[in-house]
Amino acid sequence: MKIADVIATRQKDWKELESEIHKIRGKSIRRIPPEELLDFGRRYRAICSDLSMALSMGFPPETTRYLHQLVADGHALIYRSQTFRLRDWGKVLFLDVPARIVTEPCTWIAMAVFWGLFLGSMLGAIFLDNFSAEVVGESTLTQMESMYSEPIGLGSTEDTRSMMTGFYVFNNAGIGLQCFAYGIFFGVGSLFVLAFNAIFLGAIFGHMLSSPQAGNFVNFVTSHGPFELTAVALSAGAGLKLGWSIIDTSGWSRGDSLRRNASEALELALTASVLFILAAMIEGNFSPLPLPYEIKAAMAIICTILLLMWLSMPWYFSNRKRRSLSSKSREVSDAA
User: Fold this and answer.
1) Cα separation of 124 and 84, whole Å?
2) Contact (Cβ atoms closer than 8 angstroms) between residue 285 and residue 223
């Protein structure tokens, strides 16, 4: 069959689909009659087949471009963003995202690397002479000691706390963005940034814990630590997932594999961003307050418990659903 005959035969359906796209665009899916949706779906599948045929048979370029545009417009309507529903957002936030974090191997690798290097560096700074100075430099250690030489809260005002909150958000976001974005270099970039921050922070923590300013330092960093340190590791986990998708493509091209995994990696990165912002809010507004250490420690415990509760929600609801189904099954069995 000649190409011109195929185009002439199918052109009517193409025009009808184009008309349906203009008719449906802007409407809520729930307001479209089911028969119209079924008809649209049938035409969309047909146009996808026509595009495949056009590419294989070598249709004229203008016809192929036209079919490409029809397929793209139809795809955008079918997979367009749904209207906001609080229940759907709640499911994503409290079930889908924490489940992905817990089951994602890259998250666990990043956590292990960060905490292993952080604790190792901290112990090295405590027990080895000149370790912290060689890692971060004498000037940095002198600056840290000067920062915490006075009790927490002296000179702290609402204006300075607000200014420092903005600084902490900017600084933390920069670290998280580096951990995530450098993952494009096959994940090695994320591991490098993660390792650098873990060793650097560990050396500072170890030095300050063994210094005369230890009490002031601990009083300041305790309350926001759980959110901030978790966010660093989570950002690197997102970058690792991005990089691993280029290495292990599961049969896809590297570009397609990257696109397929980018959305999940971005979810992890956005979650880390939220934790960074929460940590900055606490660091800027709560940590500088002249409060007893017990209150600061209580805040850290509360933050840790909230994190663990959030991460365990998918497991909790899964078990509850399983118990509910089992109970219904027993009721049906007893009734029979």
Assistant:
1) 51
2) no
265-283 pLDDT, tens digit each = 888 898 999 999 999 999 9
Nearest-Å Rg of the Cα atoms of the chain is: 28
Read off φ and ψ for residue 141, nearest 5 degrees.
Answer: -65, -40
Least confident residue range of 60-64, 87-91, 157-161: 87-91
> What is the DSSP code (8-state) at residue 59?
-
CA-to-CA separations, 251 to 185, 192, 257, in angstroms, rounded? 20, 28, 8
What pLDDT sits at residue 315? 85
DSSP label at residue 94: I
Query: How many angstroms separate the Cα of 118 from the Cα of each of 194, 205, 247, 278, 283?
Result: 10, 9, 27, 22, 20
Helix axes 105-127, 225-247, angle to 10 degrees: 130
Tokens of 315: 């497991």
Residue type, 106: C
Apex 274 CA angle, 271 and 280, nearest 5: 145
Q: What is the pTM of this model?
A: 0.69
Q: Name the nearest CA neighbour of 221 among 102, 118, 110, 107.
A: 118
Joined together, the tokens standing for residue 196 give 């650098």
Maximum separation of any 2 CA atoms in the chain, in Å: 89
Q: Answer yes or no: is pLDDT of 4 > 90.
A: no
Residue with tokens 């079919």: 67
